[in-house]
Each structure stands twice: as structure tokens, then as C-alpha cells.
Amino acid sequence: MEFEKTKKILTVVLAISIIIIIAGIIVVAKQGFRFDLHYQGGKRIEVELGQDVQKQEIEEISKEVLGENVQVQIVEVYKQEVSILAPDITEEQRNAIVTKINEKYGLELSAEESEIIVVPNTRFRDIIRPYIIPLIITTVIILVYIGFRFIKKTSAEILLETIGAITVGQALLFSIIAVTRIPIGVWTLPLVLIVYVLSTVFCTARLETYINLQKEKEQSNEQA
Amino acid sequence: METKKTTKKIGDFVKIVTIVLAIICVSMISFIGIYVQKQNRMENIMKDYDLAMDLNGGRVISIKPKDETETIIKDAEGNVIDEELTDEEITEKGYTKEEVKKNEGNLTEENFEEAKKIIIKRLDAMGVENYDIKLNKQTGEFTIQIEENKSTDSVVSNLPTVGKFEIVDSETQEVLMNNDDIKDAKVLYGAETEGTGVYLQIDFNKEGKGKLEEISNTYRTVENSTTDENTTEAENTTTEENTTEENTENTTEENATGENAENTTTEGETTEETDEAEKTQKEITMKIDDETIMSTSFETPIHTGMIQLNVGSASTDADLLSSYAERAVTIATVLENGVLPIEYETSGNEFIFSEITTQELQYVVYAIAGVVAVGILYFIIRYRLRGILASFAYIGYIATYLLLIRYANVTLSLEGIFGIILAFAISYVFIERMILHQTDKKQDVTFFLKIIPLCVSAIVFCFIEWVPITSLGMTLFWGIVLMAVYHYVVTRPLISMLGKKE
Fold it and tell me: Domain ranges in chain B?
């Protein structure tokens, strides 16, 4: 009974998921994914302060000049140099940043020394490339396991259900990312892996529960 | 009867107190550390977490196509003249001299993509387990971020190498073999009387095998003219050739590092002075990117289609052997992964810290701690005394797990942090099941059967040579192993002492 109830809930969840996935596909087809600065690239300048850098302070200065979409990183172990990455940095903006840094720290840095470097983007396929083979290997092993473990119950339906759950899980994640316009960044791939792992666990847990319920049913029938 | 009960109660109480004290002790070590005085300051002697590139930062290398120009001499009809001529001779012969950019004509998008493929192959072959590669399609410039470790410098030096391999006639500089003849290059190790030897084995394809056989016949060592110099032995950077067939003696030894050209000259001079017969000795020179790796002749013809080169001399010094192996791997990597279609030079090489700061990581830790605290509170409210003991056990699990991660050499990346969170969650569910079904082992079996895909993923991910995936695999693996052991050894006895839940 409870299993049937869960099945109904799952059908509703699946229907909602499909709607989100369709919306995601439309958004991706029209606008593509959004990437954060780490993958999107842009322009970068490096400023050598010659004294300990406070990342937060430089971040504030950079945001004043370049807007919110800025990535500040400390360069080299002595932590006296800073790298500022933004979608675009013009010469005026660079000069403004260096001037503000000079004012803040009482320095006399020359803006010309901070060359504007073009940072190319990382291709999406390069980002996901190392993850494809491990996920395929794991999926195959899990499917083989499911085949053996549920040998009596195994049908193409169960295997398809497992593959479906994994695919829907990933598609749903990327659709949510696309629809909400959350940029793909360093947090995305860990999420992909976790969703993958959870969807496989979900499938097996469901099958195990189903088998246990069947066993209990058989036992109660025998007793009756 | 009553005395027995009281003794059992006291015994259980002592056991509970002992376990709780042990948990407090482990938790303090794990969360706070062990501080000892070192040079007037207190220092935590506990191992720190090993952070991956996404959390720690990495070496950012920029390589761009060379801007260098080369002088080309052309005749009146526009044909390129290979001879070296003075300005006067050029004018005399009616030739023209042009300054041409080395990479001109090669700077196409196809070549950039080809170069990218080769660089990725090289990175993989050199065992770089985490990198981020960006290509500027307009300029052909690459920005590559790799992890900072012992081999980073070697990788950096390898990346812009074109990888042009040539075997030329030492005298005429005629190209006898090149990359097209190579099938494979690998590094081998062998036991020798002086210790372990590192070898670079170059396997040639069918065509190359034939060429090698012919060359080894043509460039055979003239009787009484074998050179056996040890001029570079002091530096221990000698590359010697085993003249390929396993049991053949070495014929020439020579330095294989940067100063190759110089050493070749030195060798020439020495040879001249020592033996008149050597003047007639024909030798081949092996070059990578126009730099001489070695010059040699052959004792016997080679029929196997492969040559084995000793990289350095046999040694028992692990560091020395590791440096030889690194050099051999570098050469092998360059040889077997193709020639870069463009000449590159390093334009930037610096360590850049991660965009995720320690402070931001601390927020994540606080958030996790908050969720754990809520979970513990739930245990206490719902299961009272059992909940308190289960909470202690859970905190002990977290503390032991975090210690294990540090000492099991797990490299933590963002994926690893997610793995830790997942391990915490699974362990929490497992403890709750233990409270609810204390002695029902069937429930435990069902639980583990349900998480088998997680175990499979953890094991497979542990073997993947990509740090973020390995990190997730390792954290999950240790989390599951510890969960199985710890909760049976600590949690179950602790909860069971209170008797069965009604």
C-alpha cells in the first residue's frame, strides 16, 4: 500500500521533472548555459602591491570599478600580488583600480605595469570530459549488480528505470541550472556527482524496499 | 541476584563513561589538535588537510606561439636556399634575404586545436590528475592551470616543447629517422649491480624498424674505435645507450641535459685527441627539438625495432632515481604524443591561490556544523538518553572520520567536501536505524544492500586518475568503511547498554 502511495508521489515528481526538463531544454537552446568567471574567462590584471594583500579590500575596490562580477585571487606564496578577473576590463577601469589601490595603501604604483591579459573561456566539453568515462564505468557496474541482485525480478523495465532515474536526475539538475540562470561554476560538477550517486542509491533502495514488501506479503499470505 | 544486577549496572555505567571519555578525547584531538611548544610558540602537530587545486590554488602557465623570426635565403626564382651564406655571398649570387616569423602560416584554428589535443595527451601521459586548459582561438595562446607539486616544474618545461624527434647523421646532419617512425616510447626499470637503472625504450613502427636496421648497419662501430667517455659522470646526468639489444655493451655515454651541444663538442675534441681511428667513425645524433640528446654508433645491427637508452646511471638513491624517471617520462611523453604544429614559448608561470578562500571554507564548515547540531538536537529530543549517547557516538564518528581523512592521504576537493557531507548523512541515518532496531541485524544488511551503488561508486572513483573524482571516491570509501566498523564497535554497544527500546 505504502509502496503504491510512493509510486503515485513519484509519478507526480516525474511529471514535474519532465516539465522542468522541457523548460530547461528550451532555455539552453535559446540562451545556453551561464558560466561563472572561472569558466567564462574575460580580462585579467595583476597588481603587485609589495606588501601583504587583503583580498576583501581589493575585492571591494574592484567591485566599485568593475561591478559585482569580479574574481579576486592572491598571486604567489608571498601574497603581495593580486589578480583581478572580470568579464571586461578597459584601460580606464584598470587605471581607476590602480589609483584606488594607491590611495588606499599610500602606494605609487603605475597602472601601465598591470598589463590587461585576455583569459579565454573553458569549453563545456573540456569541463565534463574527465567525468564521462568514470560515470559510464560506474553505471555499467551498477546495472550489472542490479541484474544479478534482482535476478528474479529483473526485466528490461527495471534496468530502464535505473538508467531513467540517473538520466532524469542529471537532466533535472542541468535544467534547474539553466532555468534559474545559476552560472555553471566550480560547484556544478560536485553537484553532478552527488546527484548521480544519490539517484543510483534511490533506485536500489526502491527495489530493495519493493522486494522486502513482496516478501512480507508472501509471508503474510502463507500465514493466512 | 540483585547484587549481580547492580554490578552489571555499574559495569555498564563504567563502560559508557569510558567510551564517552574516549570520544571526547578523540574529538578534541580531531577538532582542536595537539599543540606542542616549538621555538617559543605552540604548534599543532596534527596533520593538515591536503587540499586540491580548486581549494588551494595551482600553477597557472601561459604559453603562446613564438614571435621569433628566422632568416630565409631565397634565389632569384624564390626557392629557399639551405646553405649558410654571408651577406656578401648572398649579394654575389643574386639571392635575397627575408626575415620570416617562425610560426607564420601555422597560426590557424585547426593547428591550435591540434596543439590542444597534444597538450592534453601530454598532461594525461605525465600523470597530471587535475588541470584546466583554456585556448584563445584568436591568438593560439593557452592558459593552463595545474596542481602544484614536485613534478610541476617538469610538466611546465615539457608543455611548450614541440616534440620534434630526429636521428641525424652527426656529420652531414641528414635526417635519417623522425617522429613518423616512432610507434611508442616508454620508461622501464631494471636491476643492475650498482642499483636500479632507468631506461627509455623507443619502439619504432614497421617502417622505422627497417630504417633502424639499416642505420645500425651503416653506423656500426669501427673496430678499436669504441668511445667510452665518462666525462660527465660527476654530474650523474649521463644518458647512455645500450646499443639497443639487451646484452650489447654501451658504446657512448653522454650528458643528456641542457648542455648537450656543448658536450658533443667536447666529445669530438676528446675523441680527436685520443684515437686517430675514430676520425672515420660514422655516428648518429639523436635530437629532440633540435637539441642533441646523444651521439652514438652501433655495436651490432638492430633487428628488434627498438632502442633502449639508459637515463642516468644505475643507483640506489631513491631521489636520484625519481629524477631520472621524471626525465625519462618527460622525453617519452614528448615522443609518443605527437609534434606540436606550432612553436610555443612560456609567457607566464605563477602560482595563483584559489578563488575560494579559507574564510569561505570556514562558512561551509559552520553551515555543516549547524546542520549536524540540529540533527543531534533531534536525536536528543526524540530518543532522550539513547539520543544523547547516539549523539556522542555520532560526534565521535565525525571526529574519527576527519582524522582518518587527514592520515589516509585523501586530497580534498569540493567533490571531497560533498563526499564528507554525504558520509555524515548516511552515518546519521544508520545511527537512527540502530536506535530503532537495536539488535536486528537484518535491518543492517538491508541498509548496506541499499547503499551498494554508493559503495560501487566510491570504489570506482578511488581508481580514477582525476583528483576531484578520486577525492569524492576516497571520502565516500573511508566514510562507509568507518561507518561499518565504528558503529559496530562503538555505537551499538553504547546504545545497547541501556537495554532494548520499548
Answer: 2-46+356-496, 69-101, 166-319
